[in-house]
Amino acid sequence: MTAIMATDFPLLSLLLFTPLAGALMCLVIGAANGTNARWVALITAGIVFVLSLVLCLLQTPAAGWLLYEDYSWIENFGIRYTLGLDGLSSVLILLTAFLQVLAVLVSWRQNHAPAIFFALLLILETAAIGVLLALDLILFYLFWELMLIPMFFLIGVWGYKRRFYAAVKFFLFTLIGSLCLLLAVISLYLLHGEQTGVYTFALEALKQTELSGTQELIFFLCFMAAFVVKVPLFPFHSWLPDAHAEGPAAGSVDLAGLLLKTGVYGMIRFAFPLFPVAAQKTMPILAVLALVGLFYAAWVAFQQIDIKRIVAYSSISHMGFVILGLAAWNQTAWEGSVLLMVNHAVTTAGLFAVVAMIEQRTGTRALDQLGGMWKSHPNMSAFFLLFCMASLGLPGLANFAGEILILIGVFTVKPLWAIIAVVGILFSAVYTLRLVQGTLWGSSCEPHDKQDLVPREWLVLIPLAVLVVLLGCYPQPVLELLREPVSSLLMSGGLP
To answer: Which of 111, 144, 227, 311 is deepest in the core (most CB within 10 A)?
Structure first.
């Protein structure tokens, strides 16, 4: 891939480290006054969003890097500071920046150590952006591991009753997968150096490493060990419902909107292009796990009483749909998978935000203790209904656009997979309608806070609602940005 826009100013580095600078300011300026920390975090997140939006608007639907930075870092070990922005990464970074603004607003009333809380949110943003920009495998790994630290503390310190259990479970699951990734990266580095005499962690160079079938399969499985846990794919998913249920609202928004997406991104940017033969051979297994996860998560979601856990299991089901699209290994399905990632992040962020608002007003998330919210809080309930309908794939709303592209792409190569997936969509409708019925209608609960949406909550929900409709009715701008990068990644993965 070649650069299509050159600049001497390090825009990517500015985008990457602005949240980190904001985090330091939160700790310094906001240590004595929590309000200062809130405003520093909001302004910083807003600057990052504006910068990412500008870069996304400058992007053209052509192959190549919009921006590319490459500097010497630790040359003795072949480690370089290499960043690249193309259509795929620009869309996901824009999504990250947008959701982080909302995560700050959702957490505005956070009173327990607010300076540290908002600093962790911004550090997490830097880590997520770093994962989406890094093209040196050690640099990628550093940002990949950095994501664990703020999320661990966000769950473990600011979560609910079982927060420590959930935080440790999240950390152990992801750390074990990450260690497999590190071993594979170092081994690939050494093998490439022995073959060429050039020791490097550069992604493009490592693609040229000659591997036997067994070596390639082992490397591929080690890379995938890190990525499938982060998605998460069945049966490596059990950490996610606990992390969502016990974590704060902002943690849930970031988990669903940021961290889960980095797992899929790692597959299509690193695992598949580096090990294309192994990837294509294991696609049927990936498809089976995706379909099992789709049905299993939908069934478990139907059994839940905690409405936050219902939304958490719905995320596992939807991400199974995303992985099924990747397993089809064609352009249409891959575009649908990335689009569904974006749409799912927006829809689920809206659901988690409204769930937090419901809990603030009722003091509970138990479905059997809720009901009648439409009567007492009609505006909030209308947003909740919109996000639920988008989640079940109602035509004209966000998730449908990605799902239909995945089904078309999958049907062209494996019609049976597509037919089974359609049945899975019906399962998702069942638990979603149960969630709507039990929360909005039925016997009325007695909320202790009868106030409907306040201005800050309108600021959170209106942009999400607008995006849900726009991405459902007109996803073409996003698809145009994705088309060439997806095509390039498919070809580098061995697509004929």
So the answer is: 311
Tokens of 481: 């940005």
Q: Left, alpha or beta for 222 (phi > 0: left; psi -120 to 50: alpha)?
A: alpha
Enumerate the β-bridge partners of residue 82. Answer: 70
Q: Collect all residues with Cβ–Cβ distance below 8 Å to 439 and sequence separation of at least 6.
A: 307, 358, 367, 370, 371, 373, 381, 384
Rounded distance, CA 406 to CA 331, Å? Answer: 10
Place of tokens 């300076």: 115
- Chain-centroid distance of CA 128 in Å reads 9
What amino acid occupies position 40? V
Euclidean distance between CA atoms 388 and 337, whole angstroms: 20
| pLDDT for position 496 | 43
Give the H or E element holding residue 374. Answer: helix 373-376
pTM: 0.92
Low-confidence ranges of the chain (pLDDT < 50): 1-6, 495-496
Strands 67-74 and 79-85: antiparallel
Query: What is the separation, in whole angstroms, between the first and last Cα of the chain?
Result: 18
Amino acid at 431: Y
How many CA atoms lie within 13 Å of 373's alpha carbon, on the beta-carbon side?
Answer: 31
Spans of all domains in the chain: 1-273, 275-489
Q: Is the distance from CB of 463 to CB of 103 less than 8 angstroms? A: no
Q: Which amino acid is at 422?
A: V
Question: What letter would DSSP give residue 42?
Answer: H
In the structure encoding, which two tokens stand for residue 130, read together? 């770093």
Please spell the DSSP secondary structure of 80-143, one letter per residue. EEEEEE-HHHHHHHHHHHHHHHHHHHHTTT--SSHHHHHHHHHHHHHHHHHHHHB-BHHHHHHH
| DSSP secondary structure of 322-372 | HHHHHHH-SHHHHHHHHHHHHHHHHHHHHHHHHHHHHHHHHS--BGGG---
CA separation for the pair 294, 411 (Å, rounded): 17
Sequence-distant (6+) residues with CB within 8 A of 435 are 307, 310, 311, 367, 388
160 and 244 in contact (C-beta within 8 Å)? no
Query: What digits encode the pLDDT tens for the residues 427-457?
Result: 888 899 999 998 888 776 667 667 888 999 9
From residue 381, give the alpha-carbon distance in Å to each of 103, 430, 472: 20, 19, 20
CA torsion through residues 372, 374, 379, 380, sign: positive
d(CA 175, CA 145) in angstroms, rounded, equals 8
Contact 276, 376 (CB under 8 A): no
